[in-house]
């Protein structure tokens, strides 16, 4: 796992931090809206602005979007694509190693939405199949360098409609079992942290 100095990167720049946070919420709302158009029980995860640098850990287990028990993270990317074959890099950066491994439970899927085309592709994270570590990926905007989990785009990126079909199938099976959760449990979202200033962004429907 890579090491990082939080106080030398974007976490120290409040204006950049909050701008990126709000921008991310806008794309989460786009994905949330699209999931709802398929009649999926999608809800936004709790959102908060950290009161301080160290309180970020209070939010690490929150998902961007929930569909029943499924935890979905949203990543907006500044590249144009429609299909997996259009992905312009040799790998898809899923999440920094320290961040993904620190989540409990871990996300079930990552939805990548293009800021250019607003198309969406999905990486499913079951058992971290196909994950490998790419060391020293630099983010020039945020001033961070991390080791990332990455996947091969042609092998592991999936169209959004296939992801939706999978979710609908799992929910149908769960309903047959008399439970709203595909594993038959009554697991719910984690409690909202008490630290941080909550905000709601528009467009969630």
Short synopsis of the structure:
The protein has helices spanning 14-37, 97-101, 153-156, 160-176, and strands at residues 42-44, 48-49, 65-67, 70-77, 92-96, 109-114, 120-124, 132-139, 144-151, 157-159, 197-198.
Which SSEs are present, and which pair or pack?
Blueprint: H1 14-37, E1 42-44, E2 48-49, E3 65-67, E4 70-77, E5 92-96, H2 97-101, E6 109-114, E7 120-124, E8 132-139, E9 144-151, H3 153-156, E10 157-159, H4 160-176, E11 197-198
Parallel strand pairs: 4-6
Antiparallel strand pairs: 1-3, 2-11, 3-4, 5-9, 6-7, 7-10, 8-9
Description:
The protein is α+β, with helices and mostly antiparallel strands. It has one domain (6-185): Trna Endonuclease, Chain: A, domain 1. 24% of the residues lie in helices and 26% in strands. It has four helices and eleven strands. The protein has helices spanning 14-37, 97-101, 153-156, 160-176, and strands spanning 42-44, 48-49, 65-67, 70-77, 92-96, 109-114, 120-124, 132-139, 144-151, 157-159, 197-198. It has a six-stranded mixed sheet. A three-stranded antiparallel sheet has the order 5-9-8. A hairpin with a 4-residue loop joins strand 8 (132-139) and strand 9. The longest helix has 24 residues, at 14-37. It is globular. It starts with 13 loop residues before the first helix and ends in a 7-residue tail after the last strand. Residues 1-8, 183-187 and 191-205 have low confidence and may be disordered.
